[in-house]
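REQUEST FORM: STRUCTURE PREDICTION
Request ID: SP-0412
Submitted by: Lab K.M.
Chain count: 1
Length (residues): 513
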Amino acid sequence: MKETKTVPESSAHTKSTIIIILITTLVFAIFINHELDNLNKYSRYIAENGKSALFHEEYINQKISLHLSRSFSAGEHKYAHGPLSPAAICQRMEHTGNIYGLNLNGHTFPSLPGTLQTYDPDCKKWAADVPGLLFFNNQIGDTSSKYSFSNYTGYKFNNTRYYIDLKNNYIYIDKIVNTKEYTFNNWLIKNHDSIDIKQSAHTIDIDENALTDLEKGESIVSHIYRDGYTKNNIISLLTPIFTHGDIKGIILTDINIADLTTSFYTRDRPFLWKFLTLYVKDNNTGKIIKFHSPSFTLFNTGNSLASITKYYTLHIGIDVQYFIITNFWIFILYILSTYLLCEYTKYHQTRQQLLAQENITDAMTGLYNRKIFALTLNKLVPQLLKKQVPITALAIDCDGLKRINDTQGHHMGDYAIECIGQAIRQSIRKNDYGIRQGGDEFVILLIGHTYHEAQAVLSRIAEALRILDKQHIVAFSSGCYQLEASDTLEIALHKADARLYAHKRSNNTVRRP
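STATUS: Completed
RESULT:
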């Protein structure tokens, strides 16, 4: 049996459903777009918040620079005697190989919180600076000012600060560093030569123009580079220190992954933070520092970009999981409403198809009834003939149906009709049409079959009837006609009927043996 046309009501239901789904989808898209717009605005807030934090680190550098400059310029007389005098400090000097300094292999000089490294064994040149370096550590935690416009407070950084002295050729690190494991050779110069700021600064990827600005007194930043000490990509902030009008040294602060995380962390929306992917990309070199990502990711719904400096761009991605979780109710409502609308349409389509099927189906045999001619075949047959598809019509009726009704009862007559109908259904293909015209008269249209191929179908029907007819009372007669290009369906059926009745008159019927 074929799929049949549904009544227009099914099409109307489908169109209505499509319109409603389109409307709900549009509303859903508008809602999600609004959420995306809000998150894009919040991404800009994240960027500004992080820039404020990094600017605050620059402020700390500048504040330390100011105090160190004043301390170094004050002279040595204040600490001429006592535990911080040059003589006392020189007594505590250590060396590891050709590296000299303080706290090289442990915290052996408690007055100084960090490590001082130099190639110069003449400690008198740099020992006078040590009292000033004490302030280097103390000021890190004391950065607030009652006259500052900044409200950036409560953020704890875990960065590393260095002081590189260009006059006395040493480096001071604000943490204890095991010199046996690491020496800051990129800044230290052997053979008592002076530290070449241009040569050393290139090791942390600083532009020539930026170096010129540094020497003029400006704070600068490096490009992203791989740090030899931590083995990670970092950014460095550099601030100069001047004494008596000349540059004496540089404060260098490393901004690492933990510091970037601290800077850009959104305290007011901690749940959102779990689904953010953030990284800083160097616009010149293409290097990145990826400092935050979700523990599990599906895919990012967007990638917001924000300029940090002329060197860096912040990339912010929000994983789709955030939208699913925070807008769970709207997702469920949209999916449920769409599902129910589709099921509603499917129900009506199925119902209309069943009604249409019943409308053209013979209840007794399950074959098509006469209505299939007007609905389908009157249009289909001419189209197939134009394409030169062979079509053969078979006319079949039950032999002796009146005798069976009169002698064995009408229920046996119905039995005979049902047997023939079932035999036809079992013997034809899905693209063929088996039709009960009325009473015991049947028509079969074989699509793509010639006259000779139709004989095999008749043989299959006879064999199927032999198996189905348990009472051995059913036989049938047939007429076969292959349509020509000029034939109409009506003419073909008449010719098949004529051959059927000719077959009967000559008593050359197909019966059970």
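NOTES: The CA atoms of residues 32 and 38 lie 10 Å apart.
Reviewed by: T.R.
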